[in-house]
Amino acid sequence: MKIIISGGTELGILFAKTLVADNDLRVIETSPKAIEQLEQLDLQIIRGNPTGISVLQEAQVADADIFIACAHSDEVNVISCLAVKQLGIAKTFCFVNKSHYFQTFAGELGEKLAIDKIIWPEMYLGEYIAQILTVPGAIDVKFFENEDLKLLEFRVKTSEHGVGKMLKDLNIPKGVLVVSLVRGEEVIIPSGLTTLHRNDKIIFVGHESAMRKIENRFKTGNNKNMNVVIIGGGNVGYILGKALEPFTNIRVRIIEKSPVQAQFLAENLSERILILNADGADPAFLKTLQLNECDCLVALTGNDERNFYVSMHAKSLQAKKIITRAHFSESIDFFEKMGVDVALSSQLNAIQSVTKQISKDSIDLFTVVEKGKAEIRETTVPSDFPPSKLMDLKLPEGIIIAAIKRGGHTIVPCGQDKIKSGDHLRVFSATDKTDVITEFLKEIIRNSANEKETGDKQ
Description:
By secondary structure, the protein is an alpha/beta fold. It has 3 domains: about 1-120, Rossmann fold (3-Layer(aba) Sandwich); about 225-350, Rossmann fold (3-Layer(aba) Sandwich); about 365-455, Regulator of K+ conductance, C-terminal domain (Alpha-Beta Plaits, 2-Layer Sandwich), CATH 3.30.70.1450. It has helices at about 10-20, 30-40, 55-60, 75-85, 100-105, 110-115, 120-135, 210-220, 235-245, 260-270, 285-290, 305-315, 330-335, 345-360, 390-395, 435-455, and strands at about 1-5, 25-30, 45, 65-70, 90-95, 115-120, 140-145, 150-155, 175-185, 185-190, 200-205, 225-230, 250-255, 275, 295-300, 320-325, 340-345, 365-370, 375-380, 390, 400-405, 410, 420, 425-430. The strands form 5 sheets. Strands 3-2-1-4-5-6 form a 6-stranded parallel beta sheet, with helices on both faces. A 6-stranded parallel beta sheet has the order 14-13-12-15-16-17, with helices on both faces. A 5-stranded antiparallel beta sheet has the order 7-8-11-9-10. α1 runs parallel beside α14 (about 345-360), α7 (about 120-135) packs across α9 and α7 (about 120-135) crosses α14 (about 345-360). The chain is globular. The two termini are about 45 Å apart.
C-alpha cells in the first residue's frame, strides 16, 4: 500500500519501522534530527509542513491509500487530515493528545468532517489496562468481538501454575488451547511434551466458560474483591478510573500529587473511587498504603523513571501484580526483566490498533500479542480445500490453529476436528511466520488436486 506518515515523532518513527518492509512509505518531516533517523530506513522523506498543500501534493497524497497524522501538534494533525480528504481518497488516522480534540472530532462533528479515525493513545491505554484488571492474575486479556472466544496470558511462577510440568499434565479444560509460551525473547509453539519453566509466559485461547477455570488457577487473591492502587491521576489514570467505575467488586484508590488534578478527579469520578492528594513516589507514603494487600498497583506518573521507582518499591512491599506505563517503548523489556508484571506503552498500543485496521494481507490481522512478537490472524479456507483432520495436516513449525469459526459457531479445536472449505481460521504464529499458513493451505489444495488427477488417470 501507499502510506504517508505526517510527523517524524517517536510515534511516527515507530510507525515507519513497523510499516516500511511491506509498503510504499513516505514521511513528512522538517526536524533534522528526526530526518537523520528516518534516512536509515528504505522510505521517501518529504521536507515541509504537512498543512501546506504543496507539501501534501509533493507527498502524492492523491494516490495514497493511508494517511497517518502523528505530528507533535493536534492542530496540525487535524488540519492535514482534512486537507488530505480534499485531495484524495486516503483513509486518515488522526492522532491527538488533548481530550477535547478527541471528544470534538470523534463524535458527530468528526463524521461530518470526514476524518476516518481519531486516535487518543492515552484513552486506548487506560481502557486496555482496565481490560487486564478484569482478570486478576492475567498479564494480558483480549476479547474476540462477536465470538465466544477470549485470550488470556499469565506468568508461570509456582508449581501450582505448572512449573516443571509438561503441558499434557496440566489438565487443561476442554474448550481451551495453549497457543504459545514466551520464554525470554523466544515465542514457542508448544506440544504436549513441552515443559514449563519459571517465569514463562503462557498464552491460552478458549471459550469464555472454560477460561474461568484457567482464571481460577492463576488468580492472585483469595476472594472476589480486588484492591487496586493507581499512582498518577492524569489522563490515563482518569480514564482507567472511569472504566473501573461499573465494577463494584474492585476497590480503587488513585494517588495524585497535583491538588488541582486531584480535585478534578474527585469531582468527576464515582464516590466509590478514593482520591488521595499525595506524592505516590514517596517511599514513606507508599508504606502507608499496605501494598501487601494490593492485588494490583498501576504506575502512571509523568515519566518512566518515576514509574519504575514506584514499581520497584511496590514490588518490595509485596504488591501482588504491578502494571507500569512506559512512555518510551525501549523501556518495556527492561521493566519486565526487572520484575514488573506488565509494562505498556500507549504508543505501541495505538500502533497495533492502526496496523490491525490497515492490514490488506490475504490473512487479516486479528490481534497482536506480546508487544508485536506474535499475532493472531484470520484466514478463510479456500472453497476447493478437502476436509482434513487437524492431526493429519502436519502444520508448519511456528504456527497453531487457535480457533475455527464456522457459520455462527466458534470451535476451539483438538486433533480430531476437521478443517473445511469456508472455515475462518484464527491462526497464532510468531510475527515472522505470518505468511506460512496461506502457502500451506495452497499446497494442500495442490496436492489434493494432483492425487485426484492421478486417481482419475488410473
